[in-house]
Design brief:
Elements (H helix, E strand, L loop, with lengths): L1 H9 L4 H11 L2 E6 L3 H15 L4 E2 L8 E6 L4 H20 L4 E6 H6 L2 H5 L5 E3 L7 H7 L6 E3 L22 E5 L1 E2 L10 H5 L3 E2 L2 H13 L4 E5 L7 E2 L15 E2 H9 L6 E5 L8 H9 L6 E3 L7 H6 L6 H14 L4 E8 L6 H14 L3 E6 L7 H5 L6 H26 L3 E9 L6 E5 L5 E5 L9 E9 L4 E5 L1
Parallel strand pairs: 1-2, 1-3, 3-4, 4-5, 5-6, 7-10, 10-13, 14-15, 15-16, 19-21
Antiparallel strand pairs: 8-9, 11-12, 17-18, 17-20, 18-19, 20-21
The structure holds 5'-deoxyadenosine and iron/sulfur cluster (SF4).
Length: about 475
């Protein structure tokens, strides 16, 4: 459309003109995000980049001029969900031929321009490191052309971009600290879709978190594929890059964010058992506003499986990390990720996973059937030989045991009083609020007085289910 064209051509004449053009745009952007928290955070970067071009976001796809799906490739099912959603936009595109449909994120990166062949209605394909190019790519689609940019970068962190918040609770937010992953777990497609690991300038992270606090947010979750390998101005071998500026590791970064304000809660995800050091746990112990909760994916409780998964630790090492958590943070709870039925997994190896779960007793877990992903080390090297039925049965056994453990944790909380950050009205009743305690348990309680989302309250726990705690403000 000519409006966009003008904005870009005439922008060379100066900022003032650009902002006048910006008002003229009048176009609406609709973004749907799938998969991990990083994708949700990236969608806010995309919204910010296009906000500067004069686009407003909308929650109603039907009134949109641009529809973006920010996609996930981690398991085959995630991709199927997106494909199904794309067919649903076919109708809208028929009635509005000017509608631009774009696929962003991991599926875009994995399938590249093949996606245009496979899904005829897609106009734009953009990988996770190419979002700054979106204004140009949108312009390229004028007149019905297709546009693709799937270049990965070793430097891009979008560090200077203030995300446009797309959520509505106004209390909790994600802040990304690293992009990409260098770990090469054999089952995982992420190193191929999100490229090499790189860390964001700590000053921009602190600035974003401070800005969120000033806008009323009370909790930030620092995001990275492996937060423990965050390092600024230092190579992975510990060599300083620039002697004139300080180096920063994850423990130091977390301390910088924790010092913004005692009322700003800090969470982080995801920790990696091979890299999580005591220094991180000690900083957590030092600051009340760093939450007593660690998401530490174990994937399997069997050493041979862990080796084939290329995870870089043993069961003994993992248990040593759990012991360190309990020693340094006696009140902390730990959650995990588990994969059932990875290549060659025997019944005994599956039992070893259940055994480890019994020993550790995670408060929460994400549990999956192994899904083979193209190009990964496992796809090239091992046979996906555990049949669907066995995978399903093993997964169910893992889920059943985890439910028991979660319920036990919640029962133990009954009678205790926790400091809870009110997040929003409960989904089930408008008379109740929901929020979380430091250990990340969901707490539901009746509204009381003038307390509102963003406030901290003390809640006495009076009951529970396997999924949440029930209580009242005291
Ligand atoms: N199949 C099943 N689960 C996977 N995960 C990553 N790749 C796969 C796969 N191919 C899970 C891991 C990881 C989480 C984000 O997704 O448990 O920690
Ligand atoms: Fe994938 Fe492993 Fe990197 Fe996590 S740490 S994103 S599972 S390769």
């Amino acid at each position: 459309m000519s409006v966009v064209e003008k904005t870009i051509d005439e922008s060379k004449q100066g900022e003032a003109l650009l902002s006048v053009q910006k008002e003229d745009n009048g176009k609406k952007l609709y973004i749907e995000s799938y998969g991990c928290a990083m994708n949700f955070a990236d969608s806010e970067v995309v919204a910010s980049i296009l906000d500067k071009e004069g686009y407003n976001t909308t929650r109603n796809a039907e009134e949109a001029d641009i529809v973006f799906l920010n996609t996930c490739s981690i398991r085959e099912k995630a991709e199927q969900t997106v494909r199904k959603r794309l067919t649903e936009f076919k109708k809208q595109k028929k009635s509005n031929p000017n509608l631009v449909v774009g696929v962003l994120g991991c599926m875009a990166e994995r399938l590249k321009k093949d996606l245009l062949e496979e899904e005829k209605l897609v106009d734009i394909v953009v990988g996770p490191d190419a979002y700054r190019d979106l204004p140009n790519l949108i312009q390229e689609t004028n007149g019905g052309n297709k546009a693709v940019n799937v270049l990965l970068s070793r430097e891009e962190t979008y560090g200077d971009i203030a995300p446009v918040k797309l959520d509505q609770n106004g209390v909790t937010s994600f802040v990304s600290i690293t992009r990409g992953c260098d770990n090469m777990c054999s089952f995982c497609v992420v190193p191929f879709t999100r490229g090499r690991e790189r860390s964001r300038n700590p000053l921009t992270i602190v600035a974003e978190a401070r800005d969120l606090f000033e806008k009323g947010y009370r909790e930030v979750t620092l995001l990275g594929q492996n937060v423990d390998s965050y390092r600024w101005n230092m190579t992975s071998k510990g060599v300083i890059k620039d002697e004139t500026i300080p180096t920063t590791n994850f423990a130091q970064l977390m301390e910088m964010v924790a010092q913004i304000h005692p009322d700003l809660r800090i969470r982080f995800s995801t920790s990696h058992p091979k890299d999580m050091g005591d220094d991180v746990l000690e900083v957590m112990a030092k600051y009340e506003n760093i939450c007593d909760y660690i998401h530490l994916p174990v994937q399997s409780g069997d050493n041979e499986m862990l080796k084939k998964m290329n995870r870089g630790y043993t069961v003994e090492w993992f248990k040593n990390r759990i012991d360190a958590i309990h020693r340094i943070l006696p009140n902390a709870l730990v959650s995990t990720d588990i994969i059932a039925g990875f290549c060659g997994e025997t019944e005994e190896q599956h039992q070893n996973t259940l055994k480890l779960m019994e020993e550790v007793r995670f408060s929460f877990a994400y549990m999956y059937k192994y899904s083979e992903r193209p190009k990964t080390l496992a796809e090239r090297k091992y046979e996906d030989d555990v049949d669907e039925k066995t995978k399903g049965r093993r997964l169910q056994e893992i889920i059943d045991l985890q439910m028991q453990h979660a319920h036990e944790h919640n029962k133990r909380a009954v009678g205790k009083t926790y400091k809870v950050l009110i997040e929003k009205e409960s989904k089930k009743s408008k008379d109740d609020y929901s929020g979380r305690n430091s250990q990340n348990a969901m707490v539901i309680f009746p509204k009381k007085g003038d307390k509102k989302p963003g406030d901290y309250v003390n809640v006495k726990i009076t009951g529970c289910t396997a999924a949440s705690l029930i209580g009242e403000i005291v």
